[in-house]
Amino acid sequence: MTRSAAGSARTAYRSATDSARTAWWSASRQQRQTVRLTASSTVLGLLVAAGAVVAAGPWDSGQRTAERARAAAPGGTRGEHHVPGGGARKPSAPPVLAALGSPAHGAAPAPSAEGIRNALAPLMKDPALGSLRTASVVDAVTGRELFGAEPARNATPASTVKLAVATAALSALGPEHRIDTTVAENAGGIVLVGGGDPTLTARAPEQDAQDQPASLRALADDTARALKKRGADKVRLGYDTSAYTGPLLHPISPNENIAPVSPLMADEGRLDDTRSGPAPRDGDPAASAARTFATLLTERGITVEGTPAKATAPAQARRLATTRSLPLSGLVERMLTHSDNDIAEALARQTALATGEPASFDGAGRAVRKTLAKLKLPLTDTVFEDGSGLDRDDKVSAALLTRLLVLATSADHPELRPIATGLPVAGFTGTLSGRYADERAGAGTVRAKTGTLTGVNTLAGTVVDADGRLLAFAFMTNDTTDPQAAQQALDHMATAVANCGCR
Description:
Blueprint: H1 3-26, H2 29-38, H3 42-56, H4 63-72, H5 103-107, H6 113-120, E1 132-139, E2 145-149, E3 154-155, H7 162-173, E4 180-186, E5 189-193, H8 216-229, E6 234-240, H9 285-299, E7 303-310, E8 319-324, H10 328-338, H11 341-354, H12 361-373, E9 396-397, H13 398-408, H14 417-422, E10 446-453, E11 456-464, E12 470-478, H15 483-498
Parallel strand pairs: 5-6, 6-7
Antiparallel strand pairs: 1-2, 1-12, 3-9, 4-5, 4-8, 10-11, 11-12
Helix pairs in contact: 1-3, 7-10, 7-11, 7-12, 10-11, 11-12
């Protein structure tokens, strides 16, 4: 998609909103709130229809379609300590959100700092929150902080650190970047070369999926075809994991929330048929992927001699076949929606490779930090020990998280839009599908990344308030003792912002 296309969409959008604004602001505040929650307004329908053109732009990697499907039939499990939402019936979606960063949000009045403070200050005293509790609420249109409770104080972020990793990866590589898994020639054989795509799958294509991940089966098809074209029906197979350096195991490993961090794996090293969330993991996913690839080649008429062995492909080796990941935009969306730790670690290492750092835990942390520094973000005393947020030594501030979200919703940074579109939707998708059942104003309107470790609860995202203003928020608490109560306290705070005109 081109900038000119986006410009045409904005022109159409402005035309549609001229008459809409008159009707919107002539209505009472109560009428506007009713419209916002029920989607019965034709005026707002026009806003959404026009704004969707801008929002879709070059950033739609199937996430919006996937959200609709998951809202209709949610299921599965999610990462970290998040658990499914049980059998509670999902509420009807209160849908009228104009495109993030669109003119409609700028036209709505901003809440006052005093109003936001009056809404949130009592909730910050909830005893369910831990001894460390920080918060930041920012007007996404102007970047002005409306509420802060020690916003510059660093805390353990858990999975909300994925917002920083996503920002760094998209900034360093661009939303269209893809990760290659290749088969290269080697002396007397071939080498399966891992490029760092944890979503590479050995499974049959998922029916009705809009976006298919890179396929080990398709790679075997192409490899077998290339070998047969040369008259070869017998090969030795090696596998190359040299793209990454340093330890394979995360400090918390072995753990069902993350596989050994290898540049070569199939289906995230899962030993069951799940696609997200905790699962038993293979201790050597690269070797297993190579053995699976050997089996696939055999099924296609190529005999693989012996057991696949670790090897390094020559630097200028000729490629026989390649399979490519989804665009980085799609990987970011999947990572954020499902809090996918394997993708997070992979994207941190892709950032390291793009910035000349070693693709290790240490190198990835340096790469993320120096990439964010170029965006002039508040990084004082921040610590990035990993990409997933599973490491308790990670430290970021609520102010950093809200600044990241403001950038992601800004028209000045369209490359970061997958962060906004990948955020779970309260009550409907990803790690928020089982939350907000009793939060009428928040369900469907809060979009936020969750963070959960034992004693750590965080929530950071975007919300459109009762007057239609787009706000970014980050709430962080450490040293909690009741995770469910702490989550509910954070959800109440986000709902308070959603329900607030606060002028």
